[in-house]
Amino acid sequence: MPENLFDLSGEVAVVIGATGVLGGALAEGLAAAGASVAVLGRSAERGQACVDRITKAGGEASFYAADAVSAESLADAHRQIEATLGPPTILVNAAGGNDPKVTVTAERAFETIAAADWRSAFDLNLVGGALLPCQEFGPAMVKRGKGSIINIASVSAHLPLSRVVAYSSAKAAVLSLTQFLAREWATKGVRVNSLTPGFFPAEQNRALLYNPDGSPTPRAQQILGHTPMARFGTSQELIGAAVFLASAKAASFVTGIDLRVDGGFLAQTI
Predict the structure, then answer these.
(1) What is the mean pLDDT of residues 108-119?
(2) What total number of domains does the chain contain?
(3) How many Å apart are CA 246 and CA 42, to the nearest integer?
(4) Alpha-carbon gap, residue 31 to 256, rounded angstroms
(5) Do the Cβ atoms of 190 and 148 come closer than 8 Å?
(6) Can you tell me whether residue 94 is helix, strand or coil?
(7) Is 212 inside any structural domain?
(8) How far apart (Å, rounded) are the C-alpha atoms in residues 238 and 245?
(9) What's the CATH number where 161 sits?
(10) Would you say residue 42 lies in a domain?
């Protein structure tokens, strides 16, 4: 029988931002593939709910309170994970999001967005969304000679979307950081890749995509018109890509790529 390329048994996966919809789905998917999952986030209630879903399905998971923009908080969580689940071999950086204060609108021009709000967007999506977690967990993986890091990017990192200029810029920086680390650690046994979701309705963007009556907003209609599959994605549709990138067997020669799960969004212009 062929070796199961997607079996993550014996792996310890850290999923930062697993208290959110997409991060939670990725945590559940990695656990279903056999990994022991460390669920990291700021909300103990949401984190425990994610753990409960995983354990109810027969997987192994524990919640660790952590703030992705705090190096000290991440270091403390890392120590706890090592002591309970073991050394992390998979890191998924799923923390991030767009802040309305840095969204360009008819009432808020680009030039009026304060530098402090720009820095806040970069702190959330670049510093906490990839940089600090990679600095905390990456060197330990390098020391052990084994690891897979998956940074969550965005279609707007490739083609900047209207309005979300700070978010798009920060996610573009995540792509650049991913490629830099992939080169730095390529001979050290650590693979670094990014995963780009298309449009997946979640808490942070639901109001932008749907009217109160459930009908799509004009912006949602534009997005669907630009997506060849003509629909939004579901969080479960990210799992296969994440398990592939996480697997040292399936993706042993894969590093520095951006794997798009976007329904064809980036394949279409007009």
Answers:
(1) 85
(2) 1
(3) 24
(4) 24
(5) yes
(6) coil
(7) no
(8) 11
(9) 3.40.50.720
(10) yes
Known catalytic membership, residue 167: yes
DSSP per residue over 24-74, as a string?
HHHHHHHHHTT-EEEEEES-HHHHHHHHHHHHHTT-EEEEEE--TT-HHHH
Q: Long-range pairs for 42-50 at CB < 8 Å and ≥24 separation?
A: 42/66, 42/67, 43/19, 46/19, 46/20, 47/18, 47/19, 50/18, 50/19, 50/24
Neighbours of 124 (CB within 10 A): 21
Residue 266 in domain: no
Distant-in-sequence, close-in-space partners of 201: CB < 8 Å, separation ≥ 6 = 209, 210, 232
Q: Please identify which of the residues 64, 167, 185, 265 carries the catalytic annotation.
A: 167
Distance, in Å, from the CA atom of 200 to the CA atom of 235, rounded to the nearest integer, reads: 7
C-alpha to C-alpha distance for 111 and 185, rounded to whole angstroms:
39
Is 28 a member of any domain? yes
Amino acid (one-letter) located at 149: I
- Chain mean position to CA 201: 15
Could you tell me which residues are beta bridge partners of residue 195? 152, 259
User: Which ranges of the chain does DSSP label H, i.e. alpha helix?
Assistant: 21-32, 44-56, 71-84, 115-122, 132-144, 165-185, 206-209, 218-225, 239-246
Could you list the residue range(s) of the whole structural domain that residue 67 is in?
12-198+233-260
Residue 107 has pLDDT above 70, yes or no: yes
pTM comes to 0.94
Length of the chain: 270
What pLDDT is attached to residue 150? 98
Q: Quick check: 100 pLDDT over 90?
A: no
**Residue pLDDT, tens place only, 148-195:** 999 999 998 998 777 888 899 999 999 999 999 999 999 999 999 999
